[in-house]
UniProtKB/TrEMBL annotation:
NCBIfam families: hemN_rel. Residues 23-265 form the Radical SAM core domain. Gene3D superfamilies: Aldolase class I. This is Heme chaperone HemW. Keywords: 4Fe-4S, Chaperone, Cytoplasm, Heme, Iron, Iron-sulfur, Metal-binding, S-adenosyl-L-methionine. It holds the Pfam family Radical_SAM. Probably acts as a heme chaperone, transferring heme to an unknown acceptor. Binds one molecule of heme per monomer, possibly covalently. Binds 1 [4Fe-4S] cluster. The cluster is coordinated with 3 cysteines and an exchangeable S-adenosyl-L-methionine. SMART domains: Elp3 (SM00729). The lineage of its organism: Bacteria, Bacillati, Actinomycetota, Actinomycetes, Micrococcales. PANTHER family: COPROPORPHYRINIGEN III OXIDASE, RADICAL S-ADENOSYL METHIONINE DOMAIN-CONTAINING PROTEIN 1, MITOCHONDRIAL. Signal peptide: none annotated.
Length: 405
């Protein structure tokens, strides 16, 4: 059901935004729509998700209208602080958004369009489990305004899928990709490396299978053991071996080599795209510190430097909105030190890097040693950008700490 929410300041009755919160009419605005429903919870997942047996009074068929109530409430709060601006990216994530009928997802998008507008060139992404993309699904999503589908492939190897508790049929990945492409959607494929029992050759097989689909974009994520998950309990009991850092590093290097040879350029540590236009603009908004509002139980938001998050359970979320109350559970406004750390950590993850001028004096002094250690690109630094090398991408947290110490 997801990790516990962070601690934070209480939410005022007027909502999560402060009285002095303002936002620029020229800045981009993104929307995240969380759909917390899953048929089965994967053992490694710590996202805020629920199976049908865990909903307890929060029916799926009422969910779209509940989210629309939050969209309307948020628009009123934002309109009091400046002109509303259209969403430049929208991301329907989960959970498994495609467990809901395409019409329900369309109603959520229509709510965004009614209150804020959606820019004519907006990127609108939906995450999809391959088994849920049946005849007509992709066409209905495209008609609702979706422009991009992110297909959860994870692996092409049956024993690896089993270790991750993934239940989709591997052959349905190609079917989902073909359906999305026929509907005119851009296609991204997600894969995970470092699962229990996964060998380097298993990972190569999955990469080859992903490349054979010829998607516009590929995301490759290292398996992380999160507290509170089934996988963490299995490792604690000695039932499975934890991910091996050295093997995961070898897997990342293999991914970067094979994807690069196939014409995909890395633009963020875990993401590769065929062309600049194929990059995930929504995820770039997170890494670049843009404004976004997250709708749904457990969703997080960032508006003008204030972060806030909603109550976790769908029933509690629905009850608050039915009463006309904000579903926000807590908020925080990071201080200058925390924001500097966050900017360095996030912006060094992307291909364009961090402007050297954004570093403190101590950060600039640390740069030379990082270049000498092969973690930061020396030529890019000469041109005023902190850009990670391949080795630096494997040690990104180490670089960020050195630049902010």
């Amino acid at each position: 059901m997801g990790a516990a929410l962070p601690l934070g300041d209480p939410i005022p009755a007027a909502g999560p935004l402060g009285k002095d919160t303002t936002w620029s009419a020229d800045a981009p605005f993104s929307v995240y729509l969380h759909v917390p429903f899953c048929r089965v919870r994967c053992g490694y997942c710590d996202f805020n998700t629920y199976t049908a047996q865990e909903l307890h009074g929060a029916p799926q068929d009422a969910y779209a209208e509940t989210v629309r109530r939050e969209i309307t409430l948020s628009a009123a709060q934002l309109a009091a602080r400046g002109p509303l601006r259209p969403a430049t990216t929208v991301f329907l994530g989960g959970g498994t958004p495609t467990l809901l009928p395409a019409g329900d997802l369309g109603r959520m998008l229509h709510g965004v369009a009614e209150e804020f507008g959606i820019a004519p060139d907006a990127e609108v992404t939906v995450e999809a489990n391959p088994d849920t993309v049946v005849d007509g699904t992709a066409e209905a999503l495209a008609a609702a305004g979706v422009t991009r589908m992110s297909v959860g492939m994870q692996s092409a190897v049956p024993h690896v899928l089993a270790s991750l508790d993934r239940t989709h049929r591997p052959e349905n990945v190609r079917s989902a990709v073909n359906s999305a492409r026929a509907a005119g959607l851009q296609v991204s494929v997600d894969v995970i490396y470092g699962a229990p029992g996964e060998a380097l050759e298993d990972w190569r097989r999955s990469l080859d299978a992903a490349l054979a689909l010829e998607p516009d974009h590929i995301s490759a994520y290292a398996l992380i053991v999160e507290d509170g998950t089934k996988l963490a309990r299995q490792i604690r009991r000695g039932e499975v071996v934890p991910p091996d850092d050295d093997l995961q590093a070898d897997m990342y290097e293999l991914a970067d080599a094979l994807l690069g040879e196939a014409g995909y350029d890395w633009y963020e540590v875990s993401n590769w795209a065929r062309t600049p236009d194929s990059r995930s603009r929504h995820n770039l908004a997170y890494w670049e510190g843009a404004d976004w509002w997250g709708y749904g139980p457990g969703a997080h938001s960032h508006i003008a430097g204030t972060r806030f998050w909603n109550v976790r359970h769908p029933a509690a979320y629905a009850a608050r909105l039915a009463a006309g109350e904000s579903p926000a559970a807590g908020r925080e406004t990071p201080d200058a030190t925390a924001r500097r750390w966050e900017e360095v950590l996030l912006r060094t993850r992307i291909r364009e890097g961090l402007p050297v001028e954004r570093l403190s004096a101590s950060g600039r002094r640390a740069l030379a040693a990082l270049i000498a250690d092969g973690l930061v690109d020396g030529a890019a630094a000469v041109h005023g950008r902190v850009v990670l090398t391949l080795r630096g991408r494997l040690l990104g947290d180490t670089v960020a700490r050195a630049l902010t110490s």
